[in-house]
């Protein structure tokens, strides 16, 4: 059978070469389509699609973003967007107009994720995330992204620029209730785009984040940024209010301490005071981060709360307290943060090896 197919293909090639484009290509087309049907393909702008016949792509309400199967198929982008429901792993949630620019309207775009059996967490990767900025109180009143589950802690409401960020969503072992992701957009004049990869993580898998970790980093060294981190837009800081979440880092084997430092000299400003770095109960007046038993050299007992426009004295905090966690807290109001141009934080952590 296989030999006959090879002979047929050889003959066909010969036939096509000698007799030109006439007759034969449709058979070659079928062979190519059979071979590439349903495989991944790359379309325009580097977008990933599925190779289908043009008819099948339009049946599935996808859009063709290029050719595949040596030109005999359509590289088909099937959008998972407003109103859709999925129970498939690694689904990518995009806005209605994707890959063109986003919603320009007042709208609620909502998708439902039905978990597969044996799944305990979701990981959401913001491959692209650009929504309206928060208001002057740091609240997402123009646009907002929300995750609704029936168990566990409430996840923060997000807006602004969050490409590259990720979230873990605990689902619980027993629950079969779906998770709903929604983007509420409020009015025109905002360029909105999103592309969110939704991965299902099996219970007991090593990929699970410890419970309660909104973000989880599994490297000995990585960058951690506050949501919507960046310079002022239209005279407003981008700092989000009402946050209370935990960033976890996996403790690597043979590492005994963690060092947190600013990515650049000014990349920490989180809560009052407006000059210098404060710690402990001095941070109770406004927003703060927590690094358990942190100090400049990691040798003293240290403090838990840090705030201001510097990480204590040298923009470095070291702790040996495990697990290695960063807790983030902001209140309901960014009036003072805006007054002092506080940007949020971009911190790098490095785990430090045990010294015998
Ligand atoms: C999304 O919903 C539309 C309209 O109901 C449907 O035609 C389309 O096939 C769905 N797409 C996916 C990926 O579920
Ligand atoms: C968005 O809406 C504004 C105001 O109605 C309009 O001027 C603009 O062309 C629209 N942009 C897109 C991409 O639809
Ligand atoms: C749109 O944004 C521009 C520039 O930020 C502003 O001048 C204009 O008033 C806005 N239009 C609306 C309808 O909000
Ligand atoms: C989803 O896909 C990822 C990556 O391939 C895999 O590690 C994970 O186990 C899958 N989840 C389920 C529930 O199959
Ligand atoms: C925000 O805080 C400022 C300064 O503490 C206060 O004057 C203002 O009333 C607060 N606004 C809201 C909406 O809570």
TrEMBL record:
Q: Which InterPro entries match?
A: CUB_dom (IPR000859), CUB_metazoa (IPR058698), Sperma_CUB_dom_sf (IPR035914)
Q: Which cysteines are joined by disulfide bonds?
A: 82-109
Q: Does the keyword Signal apply?
A: yes
Q: Which UniProt keywords apply?
A: Disulfide bond, Signal
Q: Does the keyword Signal apply?
A: yes
Q: Where do the CUB domain residues begin and end? A: 82-201
Gene3D superfamilies for the chain = Spermadhesin, CUB domain
The residues forming the signal peptide are: 1-20
Protein name as annotated: Uncharacterized protein LOC106478431
